[in-house]
Amino acid sequence: MLSRLPSCFRLPALLVLLALGGALLARPTQAQVQRPDETPNPDDVPRATGAYAIEDARVVVAPGDTLEGATVVVRDGLIEAVGRDVDAPYDAAAVEEATGVEEDDSLVVHAGFISGLSHAGIPQSGSSEEEPDVKRPGAPPPEVAGLQADRSARALLDPEENTLEDLRAAGFTAAHTVPRSGMLPGQGAVIQLAGDSPSGMVLRESASVFAQFEGAGRVYPATDMAVIATVRQLLREAARRQALGERYEEAPQDLPRPRYDDLHAALSPVLAGDKPMFFFTDGALGLHRATRLHEELGFPLAMAGLQQSFAATETLTEIQSEGDAETADVPLFLSLALPEEPDDAPDATPDTARADSVRPGAVSGAVADTTQPDSVGVGQDTTKAVSPQAPGSPFIRDYRTRSYEDTDGERENLLARRGLFAERYYANAATLEDAGLQFGFSTKEADAGDIHANLRKMIEYGLSEEDALAALTTDAARLLGLSRRLGTVEEGKIANLVVTDGALFEEDTAIRHVFVDGEPFEYSAEPAGGSEGEAPPAEGVNPAGTWEIEISAPGGTQTGTLTLEGAPGNLSGTIVTRGEEQTLEDVELSGSDLSFEFDGGQVGILSVTATIEGDTMEGLVTVPGYGGVALEGTRISGPE
Amino acid sequence: MRLRSFLPALLLPFALLLVGSDAHAQQPKAERGPFALTNARIQTITNGVIEDGTIVIEEDRITAVGENAPVPSGAQTFDLDGSTVYPGLIDAGTRLGLVEVGSLSETRDYSEVGEVTPHMQALTAINPSSVSIPVTRVNGVTSVIAEPSGGLMPGTAALIDLFGYTPAQMFREFEAVTLDFPDTGRRGPWDDRSQQQIEKEAEEAIQKLNDTWAQAALYAGIDSARAAGATDGQRPEYAPALEALAPVVRGDTPLIVKVDAASDITRAIEWAAEHDQTENVIFSGLAEGWRVADEIADAGIPCLVGPVLAVPARDADRYSKPYANAGLMREAGVELAIRSGEAENVRNLPYHAGFAATYGLGREQALRAVTIAPARILGVADEIGSIEEGKVANLFVADGDPFKTSTDVEHLFIKGRRVPLVNRQTELFEEYLDREPGLEGQPGEQSGGNAGGPTGSAEETTPETD
Question: How close does chain B come to A34, measured CA to CA in Å?
Answer without folding.
Answer: 7
